[in-house]
Write a structure and sequence with these properties.
heterodimer; A: 99 residues; 8% helix; globular; B: eight-stranded mixed sheet; 24% strand
């Protein structure tokens, strides 16, 4: 079970949250000029790293606000929590990531 | 036809009993990798081994290696809840999974390996009027594809599964169910071992403890794989490494529409036979069957976050068990023995990707989500065809990577009954 530090409420149990998937996927600036391949890339293709993953969570059963988490997908360790709109902090991969 | 070193039969069993079962020959060889192969298959689970077997059997390609970073069937092949069925809504899926189910029906004999395939029937419950209507729609669609499926009313369900709580005042009242009588379970390890033994007998090299660390690609054509046991050249490379598909794709320089999630399962202490079919409920989200050892085998949905850790959060198990107890109050005092997780490829449309990639000579079979086990034979069969002919079989032609560009998704979320 994850203990997730909500930037607004403090550390809470995972059961209060829902994961919203990969963060920092920007909506294309000119969607009417996008090719099918670019649409596929935006809509469906994901980084899915084995290592640090920058992802969105929502405190669904708490303050109901969205925020970002940098979490390792192997150890599940949460390295950083930051608010929407803030740039992702640089986090080094743990040993063995990506294999 | 090439024969395994020891054909399993009542006679070989009796013969080996005389020497206290101490002289059974090895089931497959463990050779050192050759410098190059016609095809290198990355991933020694059921799908990869089946692919190797059908490459050798159907397409005459025996210069094939299967490289596996751990041990055979140690990934999702040995971690699923062993359910086999073909009651899918959309034509594309129905054809693929039904092809697979038909292969299951003769597979124990073909592989000369007891897969303990048991067509004990598979019940999908409806708990409200909407679900019941949806079940009717699905059963009709399935029958139009010439696949067995029928609707049961509550009295028929009670007869088939007396321990199910069918009280109309229950928290999740049972209003009806669909039944696929040809659905059931199989022994998951045996599928990997059976295919491995049969592929080995046809000359396929099975190389365990050999992780792929990179691809050698020149002029957009794959030349071979870098592994922890050195470089292995290959005319074609086929990746069947569910859970790690994105990692391999990244090594080859492209992205997939896949995210890796844990899928948990657990088994109870063994008890006498009490549950004779597979029962699944999408609304309360649990699926359960009883193994031949007597353990209840159960699972539910994926954990919500990306992970490669082969473990998930206890709250998912808690929800699963809540659902189980609501449906089967008789199980409320059973003890659970083991719990584990596997890492599954989650695709946006809950359908697999079986075909070529942006790199020439490199093929991927991935994205099976939570339901890959049932399709092991069919998946290997169509993938072998795709690799050997360099074009998909009509059965897997709709399941290409380019459907995410063309928009021809095969949306099996919910349509398939969610639970696998």
């Amino acid at each position: 079970m994850l203990l997730i530090p909500c930037p607004y409420c403090g550390p809470r149990d995972e059961s209060e949250f829902a994961c919203g998937g990969e963060a920092h996927i920007a909506r294309p600036a000119a969607p009417d000029r996008l090719t099918d391949a670019e649409w596929a890339n935006y809509l469906f293709m994901r980084k899915n790293p084995k290592g640090v993953h920058y992802e969105r969570w929502v405190h669904a059963r708490g303050c109901r606000r969205w925020f970002n988490v940098a979490r390792d997908t192997v150890s599940h360790r949460i390295h950083a929590v930051y608010r929407m709109g803030e740039p992702p902090p640089a986090v080094a991969d743990e040993p063995g990531a990506g294999r | 036809m090439p024969k395994p070193k020891s054909r399993y039969s009542i006679w070989s069993l009796a013969r080996n009993a005389l020497s206290y079962h101490e002289n059974w020959p090895e089931v497959w060889r463990s050779p050192a990798p050759k410098p190059d192969y016609d095809v290198v298959i990355v991933g020694g689970g059921g799908h990869g081994l089946a692919t190797a077997y059908y490459l050798a059997k159907e397409h005459g390609l025996a210069n094939v290696a299967v490289v596996e970073k751990g041990w055979l069937g140690g990934g999702n092949t040995g971690r699923n809840t062993t359910v086999v069925r073909s009651n899918y809504l959309w034509d594309e899926s129905a054809h693929l999974y039904e092809h697979s189910l038909k292969m299951w029906e003769g597979l124990t004999r073909e592989l000369n390996f007891n897969l303990m395939f048991s067509q004990r029937g598979l019940l999908s419950l409806a708990h409200n009027q909407h679900e019941l209507r949806e079940l009717h729609r699905r059963v009709n669609a399935i029958r139009l594809n010439d696949i067995d499926s029928e609707i049961l009313d509550v009295e028929q369900i009670k007869k088939l599964c007396p321990i199910l709580d069918c009280d109309p005042k229950a928290r999740h009242p049972v209003l009806g169910a669909s039944l696929q009588r040809r659905g059931g379970v199989a022994r998951h390890d045996a599928v990997a071992w059976g295919y491995a033994r049969a592929a080995d007998a046809r000359g396929v090299d099975i190389i365990q403890d050999c992780a792929v660390t990179g691809f050698r690609i020149t002029n957009n054509r794959v030349q071979g794989v870098e592994t922890t046991k050195g470089y292995i050249g290959a005319k074609k490379v086929a990746c069947v490494a569910a859970g790690h598909s994105s990692v391999l794709a990244a090594l080859a320089g492209f992205r997939l529409p896949i995210e890796s999630h844990p899928l948990q399962a657990l088994v109870s202490e063994p008890v006498k036979p009490v549950l004779h079919t597979v029962v699944m409920s999408s609304a309360v989200h649990v699926y359960v069957s009883q193994s031949d050892k007597g353990e209840l085998v159960m699972g539910a949905g994926i954990d919500g976050y990306n992970s490669y850790s082969q473990r998930g959060s206890p709250l998912v198990v808690e929800n699963l068990l809540n659902a189980l107890i609501e449906l089967f109050p008789i199980f409320s005092r059973m003890k659970m023995m083991r719990q584990w997780g596997g890492i599954v490829d989650i695709c946006p449309d809950a359908s697999p990707i079986i075909g070529g990639t942006p790199v020439d000579g490199l093929y991927f079979n991935c994205g099976w989500g939570t339901g890959g086990f049932k399709s092991t034979p069919g998946s290997g069969w169509v993938f072998a065809h795709t690799i050997a002919r360099d074009e998909p079989h009509p059965l897997n032609a709709p399941f290409q990577l380019d459907r995410f560009t063309s928009g021809h998704l095969i949306d099996e979320h919910g349509a398939a009954g969610v639970a696998h």
